[in-house]
Specification:
Shape: rod-shaped
Number of strands: 0
Distance between the termini: 23 Å
Number of helices: 2
Number of domains: 1
Structural class: mainly alpha
Length: about 100
């Protein structure tokens, strides 16, 4: 795996505090790379959760409007279309809830 932060092998190692041995400096650099990678992964997962949630809300709103327009006052058709929209909302809720396990 390549380094996220570049390693400096010269005498002036800016990422390593003064007084650290070479081994301690390598260990510090590896720990820093692990933490940066974990932060990138968490940020990506949060971005995915935001995108999925936003998309689900937009689709649910759109489906609700379309169902209202198609029903055009017909109560039976409105109830059938409402059931379809409710099914989508339940599915979207389950998908968004499953994203919590990623974090």
């Amino acid at each position: 795996m390549s380094d996220i932060l570049p390693r400096n092998s010269g005498p002036n190692r800016p990422n390593v505090p003064e007084g650290f041995s070479r081994a301690e400096g390598k260990q510090l650099q590896a720990s820093t790379n692990r933490e940066v990678a974990a932060g990138i992964v968490m940020n990506t997962r949060l971005s995915v959760a935001h995108f999925v949630t936003n998309t689900a809300l937009n689709h649910a709103t759109s489906l609700t409007r379309q169902a209202y327009t198609l029903a055009d006052g017909d109560e039976y058709l409105a109830s059938r279309l409402g059931a379809l929209v409710d099914g989508y909302v339940r599915f979207a809720h389950d998908e968004v809830a499953s994203l919590r396990r990623l974090a």
